[in-house]
Each structure stands twice: as structure tokens, then as C-alpha cells.
Amino acid sequence: MGGRGGSDEDTLMDRLVGRGSRKGTTWFGRVGDVTQRPVTWAGVALALALAGGRRGRRAALRGGVGYAIAALAHLPLKALVDRDHPKGAFRLNLGPFTSSFPSGHAASDLAFVFGVAQELPLLLLPLSGATLAGHWTLLRKRSHYPSDILVGGTLGLVVAAILWKLWPPGEQPPLGAPAEAPAADSSAGESSAGESSPGAASSPPVPAPDSAPVSP
Fold this sequence. Notes:
This protein is mainly alpha-helical. It has one domain. It is 60% helix and 0% strand. Helix 7 packs antiparallel against helix 8 and helix 7 packs parallel to helix 9. The chain is globular.
């Protein structure tokens, strides 16, 4: 591996998490143990797609697209910045190990959360809290330095912002199927057709014939 994070960040890590731990001992840490796993976000997307109706399906698709883009976008940065993980990472984590900078978890998680929230804003707070717990777990397990997570998270937000710009919420994806045409109101259509059709106009009343003359 390449360079280490630097004495300042190593000192900060020691103050924040000490030697670190593989499993959380508080409810927040245990939540983070779950939410830092990619399969958790896949489960959230599946639940939204199955139970969230049309908006839920759009949210799941948008979140999944953002997750995938961020997961790919951070790889060139990892190749460019060859950085060691914090001391103790090999003791607390299972490989394979790549460059610590930036955090792909942070990038993908935030791209997913803010992508989903563009369609379902009420989910922003709970999903952000779950993400925060997951990112704390990355620190506690000494998987990443704080700067790795900050830069990765920023990358995820940039991806979500680009999605917002190129694919406004509520619309079909740019390369997706065309939007469904709204169903026409048949009764309104028939009424309109009846009013505009000249054949449907009522005929003028026919005058009654004169009465026959009365015999004297």
C-alpha cells in the first residue's frame, strides 16, 4: 500500500475509537454494523419497490442508480491516491483491502439515500441516521480515516445532485421507457364530441298543421 493518513489523523483515530472494535456495544453501534453492509441498502430498495407503489419504485430505481454510479466513480480516486487503512484495520476487518481513500461505502450510501429522498422526502431523516451509524462503524472498526469518509460522502452527494439535474424527480429515467399516456376520460370525451358534432344539434320544432274548418 501507499502512504498512511498522517500522524494527525492517526492521533484523531486513537482519540475517537482507541484500538477499535469489530462489533458495536451500543444500539447505535449495532445499527451501524447492519447499515454499513451493502446488502442492507439492497433490502431497502427491494422493500420500496414492492411496497411503496409507483413512487416507491421510482425511489428504489433512483437510489440504486445513484449507488451504482458512486460505487464506480470512487474507483479512479482509489487508484490515484494509494493510501493505507488506519492501524489495526487488518485486525478488525476482513479483506480484500484497497486504498482507504476515499470511502466507497460513504459515497454509495449517501448517493442512495439522497436519491431515494428525491422521490420520498420523508425518508431523508431516518435513512440519513442509518447512514450516520454505518459511517461511525467504519471509524470504530478502523476501516477508514475521517477524511476518507468525508470525501467519499461528498462524492455521493455530487452524484445525487447530478441525478437531480439530469433526471428530475417524478420523471422517467433519461434512457428508460416513455412515460405512460394519461387515460382519457371517456365520458368527458363523449360529452365533448356530442357538443361539437353538428349532427347532434336538436332540430327546430315543426309547426302543427292548421285545424280543419268546422262545418256550419
